[in-house]
Amino acid sequence: MSNWPKIQQLAKEVNSGKTSAASLVAKSLALIEQKKEFQAIISTTSDRARRRAEEIDNKVKKGQNAGRLAGVPFIAKDNFLAFGAETTAASNMLKGFDAPYQATAINKLEAEGAICVAKANLDAFAHGSSTENSDFFTTLNPYDKSRVPGGSSGGSAASIALDVAPFSLGTDTGGSIRAPASFCGVVGYKPTYGLVSRSGVVAMASSTDCIGALANCVEDVALVMEVMSGQDDLDSTTVEVKDNKFSDFKKPNKQIKIGLVKEYLADGINQKVKDRVLSISEKISNNGDIVKEISLPSLPLALAVYYILCPAEVASNLSRYDGQRYGFSDANSKSLEESYYNSRSKGFGNEAKRRIMIGTYVLSSGYYDAYYKKAQIVRTKMINEFTEAFKKVDYLIGPATPTTAFKIGEFTADPLSMYLNDIVLVAANLVGIPSIAIPAGKVDKLPIGVQLMARQKEDHNLINYAKYLEELINA
Amino acid sequence: MAILSHDDILKLAQLARLSLSDEEVESFINEISSILNYVEQLNEVETDDLEPTNQVTGLVNVWRPDKVINYGYQVDDILKIVPKMHDRYIRVGRMIE
Which CA distances in Å does B43 have to A243, B38, B39? Predict the structure, then answer.
């Protein structure tokens, strides 16, 4: 049993005075302390969280409504700018960085009464699939301490599996919410590109960066996504989604067609993981919906496209860290030029440097057409294949990760093998469609997730079907 | 196969304003070459007359009125995170020898 009732229930209890925001914050902070050995958390925002809890409790005492998330504690991945603690992106570059403003997503949650209690560990700048690239420490998988929690939102996913808060926030640029959700047995949601404002979130690859939520059930994720979504002046890529009452669940009243993605059941995917996906597909068709195999021939190329576009955009975004205006600055440099070199070389870890180098190469004169432009063209091909597929089916299904959680250190010596862990996830980012990872039971005692994808801006329908599927899997 | 030479790595590092240790240079030659080898599979793809995708939700030129909006940001909070200051200016190292 979870330490926490459903979020809607929690907020109701706070608003009715049955429980206090102060007690929920105290409970979450105590649980975080209890589970410290897993190293999911970089810092807590305890003082500010307690003050905010007091404000919310006072509001309730005065008979005011404290919001749809009144008093609900949550944990933000440490690449969200938030008050009350440093925002480090798990990097030495931003160690000690005191955010002068907050992410829009955090402001929206706070406006509904939610309280950020802690900042979760990640791969530095969200570059990775295991949290092993954190410049500080590696988070341990709650199910097996010798294994990784997945990444890059590993601390956020582990926090939910450890049940220290009702929900957490993550970012998903190439699978970074859904992969750790799969490895930790929790629900992880990556929305349509632009559904949630990226303002105040440390940028990684801007054409695929998405903000999403992790929780123990689809219902909780839906409510958090509903509160965070919407257009924002501070992020001109945000999109208008008319059907955004995600927490309003309605049973689909027609027969749904599900496409079982052929390329996601190919070699390289663990057989037992495939079997889980197939048995869930069978359950779906036994319950009246249609499941048919569907092929998207360009899918095996998704990772190659991603590992051109992502480093290119990373190299551009990380060029702002020059040691002059904020972030790590080398104090012993004599000239401006020397300060750039020293601040960047000492502030960035190995993976950030590797991606900056690749990105610089693929964007450099003479190589741009061969790499970056070619990748953008293949991206178009992939988008066209998805458009065709969604003419035939409503949703696509496949595994959320090719395997269960791997051992700490298993892939650190070979960056390319590490990248391959995201092979089934990156396409949704490149195409900009919503995708959710739902726990699909266990394989050899470790959790594994199943992934559902939908058309752009059909987040509400996807969440509805995900809730149905969650019930079906647990039945 | 190493696509990048020792000198290529140094040149890229210079473009990116990174100074790399000898070990970093050596490991990057292999690692980055193997990643570039992997992505070269895209050269085999038939793309005919497809256009590149830069923006995935189809947005073009998002405009806003040209006026100052107060988002509540405080100049002093922003200046607090500057490494070196002189009065209210950001101070940097010497630019010209």
Answer: 40, 11, 8
Where do the domains of chain A lie, and which CATH numbers do they carry? 7-228 (3.90.1300.10)
Q: Classify residue A475 by its DSSP letter.
A: -
Instruction: Answer whether 0.90 is exceeded by the pTM.
Output: yes
* Measured distance CA(A470)–CA(A160) in Å, rounded: 17
Q: How far apart are the C-alpha atoms of A452 and A436, rounded to whole Å? A: 5
Q: Distance between CA A150 and CA A160 in Å, rounded?
A: 13
Q: ∠ at Cα A380 (A375, A382), nearest 5°?
A: 90
For A299-345, what is each residue's pLDDT tens digit?
A: 999 999 999 999 999 999 999 999 999 999 999 999 999 999 999 99
Between CA A94 and CA A440 the distance in angstroms is 37
Work out whether the CA dihedral A417, A418, A423, A427 comes out positive or negative. Answer: negative
Domain count, chain B: 1
Tokens of A438: 């739902």
Predicted pLDDT at A7:
98
- The parent domain of residue B37 ranges over 6-44
Global ipTM = 0.95
Which residue among B8, B47, B74 sits closest to A381, beta carbon to beta carbon?
A: B47
- Residues of B with CB below 8 A from A308's CB? 39, 42
- Inter-chain touch A101–B77, beta carbons under 8 Å: yes
A51's CB contacts (< 8 A; 6+ apart) are: none
Active-site residue A2, yes or no? no
Q: Is the Cβ pair B94, A336 closer than 8 Å?
A: yes
Distance CA A227, CA A229 (A): 6
pLDDT digits (tens, 9 = 90+) for A213-226: 999 999 999 999 99
Q: What is the pLDDT of residue A422?
A: 87
Nearest of A475, A402, A408, A388 to residue A437 by alpha carbon: A402
Instruction: Please count the residue pairs, one from chain A and one from chain B, whose beta carbons lie less than 8 angstroms apart.
Output: 170
Q: Active-site residue among A152, A153, A168, A435? A: A152
**Is A319 one of the annotated active-site residues of the chain?**
no
A369: three-class secondary structure by DSSP: helix
Task: Check whether B1 has a pLDDT greater than 80.
Answer: no
Encode pLDDT of A269-297 as tens digits. 999 999 999 999 999 999 999 999 999 99
A213 phi and psi angles, rounded to 5 deg: -125, 155
| CATH (domain of B27) | 1.10.20
Beta bridge partners of A449: A439
Angstrom CA distances, B14 to A74, A200, A400, B11, stand at 42, 30, 39, 5
**DSSP string over A148-214:** ---SSSHHHHHHHHTTSSSEEEEEESSSTTHHHHHHHT-EEEE-STTSB--TTB--S-TTT-EEEEE
B79, part of any domain: no
